[in-house]
Write a structure and sequence with these properties.
Number of strands: 0
Order of helices and strands: HHHHH
Mean pLDDT: 93
Largest sheet: none
Strand content: under 5%
Number of helices: 5
Helix content: over 70%
Radius of gyration: 14 Å
């Protein structure tokens, strides 16, 4: 489940960054992270830490709708995982 969540969060970060015309390098500089960290987060290569996620979303000036989208995605994935576990 965490792999799927990582990939989906990465898609959201990329979508929001691109919608604002922000480069990977600019987002990295704004958050004090390396461009590799931004690339890895967008690719969903590993589960992103909450503080790093918030740094990215705040730097991109995302509204609460984006935060709620991520929370909803997490809840949906957890619900699906629980249903699968219960049927196994």
């Amino acid at each position: 489940m965490s792999d799927t969540l990582s990939v989906e969060i990465g898609k959201i970060i990329r979508r929001e960054r691109q919608a604002r015309g922000v480069t990977i390098e600019s987002l990295a500089n704004e958050t004090g992270r390396s461009h590799v960290t931004v690339i890895n987060a967008e690719a969903g290569r590993r589960l992103i830490k909450v503080n790093v996620l918030f740094d990215f979303l705040w730097a991109l000036d995302c509204g609460q709708d984006v935060f709620l989208e991520i929370l909803s995605l997490d809840a949906s994935l957890r619900s699906t995982a629980l249903a699968v576990k219960e049927t196994a």
